Amino acid sequence: MKIFDGELAKRGFALNAMCYSFNLKENRDKFVADEEAYMAAFNLTEEQKEAVRKRDVLGMLEAGGNVYYLAKLAGIFGLNVQDLGALQTGQTLEDFKAGLLAHGETITRNAA
Amino acid sequence: MSQVAGGIFTSHVPGIGNAIARGLQQDPYWKPFFDGFEPVHEWLAKEKPDVAVVFYNDHGLNFFLDKMPTFAIGAAPEYRHEDEGWGIAFSRPYPGHPELSWHIIEQVVASEFDPVTCQSMIVDHAVAVPFELCWPGADAFPVRLVPIAINTVQHPLPSPKRCLELGRAVGRALKSWKGPEKIVVFGTGGLSHQLEGKRAGFINKDYDHFCLDNIGPNPEALLRHDSLDIVELAGSQGVEILNWIAARGALTGEVIELSSNYHVPISNTAAATALFENREFLPA
Q: Is residue A101 part of a domain?
């Protein structure tokens, strides 16, 4: 299993730094206005830029992106974590959600 | 004399915050999760704690990967939630308790821990969502906040044992606090979920049941897996159970489960809410 460790944190620094900047709406707007200029300003590697251009989530992870940061980028594209899950697992959103619902369970305990 | 009245453990995913912002608490998809807070609301109305000590992880709001503390303790007079990238910022501020924060810092350092100390800090959904769940409505929050952040993002993560020991050190600090406050401890995050990669959507109900059954009566059972084992068992975000383990450590009395609600799925997450009373061992 791949974990987000020092090696990935080092590789992904520029991409994650760009995504961190998206906490501010004005930065999200700047990215939308000119993606290439914004990626260049954060010194993304060519691999990272290409993954962002293609909206290739697995490629972004491979390039060191951390999902907590990528979630901020995904938000700009109108994608939530369930959309991301479907994209990464090669399923439709409906199938991905159905897979989660298949685990469906509610267990409630009350001492009172 | 301060008193640690109990502990509240809950999932904190942003989807819950989004559901709150959209008023979906009674929606059939969300209701089984939100219903788990009824006993919590009753308990909070009865106990009326003054302080919340919250063990959580930051997801890239206050901390970036340029400076990533393993443990960080807030000591600010006030905290705020801010936009994390998707346009939701809860407006109610969180009053701080710098005096208690510094007491905790001094005591845990005396216990050989080395936290980063933060006199200025913003808190993300891992604090904001539990607060919205516990104290819905428009009034100001009735508790003062001491946030304690644990790195569950960038490996190497602290071990479960280290997190339990941190919690115990905080618990000792709370016991030695001379103030009159009633305190509630929070552990936020979990249970099993994984957001990234081909294993996105991973859920492990067996491990979740194991955690819920043991976190109260036998937290040492959760130490049999190291942090990497937990990533394997609970998913790369399920490792947020470290926050629960630390919070459990801060309950140093007799710990009794008052309620527990496990509901799958909420977004990509096996969600859970548990409430524990902490009966202090009082001197005779």
A: no
A99 touches chain B (CB under 8 A): yes
Distance CA B143, CA B158 (A): 29
- Report how far Cα B56 is from the mean position of its chain's Cα atoms: 5
Is A92 contained in some domain?
no
Q: Is A93 on the interface with B (CB under 8 A)?
A: no
pLDDT of res. A112: 60
Number of domains into which chain A is organized: 1
pLDDT, tens digit, 9 for 90 and up, residues A61-76: 999 999 999 999 999 9
Instruction: Give residue limits of the domains in chain B.
Output: 3-279
Q: What share of chain B is helix, strand, coil (3-state, %, to 5)?
A: 35, 25, 40
Residue spans of alpha helices (H) in B70-177: 98-110, 125-134, 160-176
Domain that holds residue A66: 6-78
Q: From the candidates B38, B59, B61, B86, which should be mutated to test the interface with A, based on the most A CB atoms within 10 A?
A: B86
**Pairing of the two strands B182-188 and B71-74:** unpaired
Average pLDDT over residues B277-282: 84
Fold of B3-279: Protocatechuate 4,5-dioxygenase; Chain B (3.40.830)
What pLDDT score was predicted for residue A111? Answer: 83
Q: Which residues contact B238 (CB under 8 A, 6 or more apart)?
A: B190, B191, B192, B193, B194, B204, B207, B230, B231
CA angle B244, B166, B253 (to 5 degrees): 70
> Whole-angstrom Cα distance, residue B102 to residue B105?
5
Question: Is A58 an 8 Å CB contact of chain B?
Answer: yes
A to B CB pairs, distance under 8 Å: 149
Q: B258 and A112: CB-CB below 8 Å?
A: yes
CA angle B31-B35-B38, nearest 5°?
155
- Model pLDDT for residues A71-100, shown as the tens digit of each residue: 999 999 999 999 999 999 999 999 999 999
| pLDDT value for B280 | 82
pLDDT over threshold 60, residue B284: no
CB B71 within 8 A of CB B129: no
User: Least CB-CB distance to A88: which of B14, B60, B198?
Assistant: B198
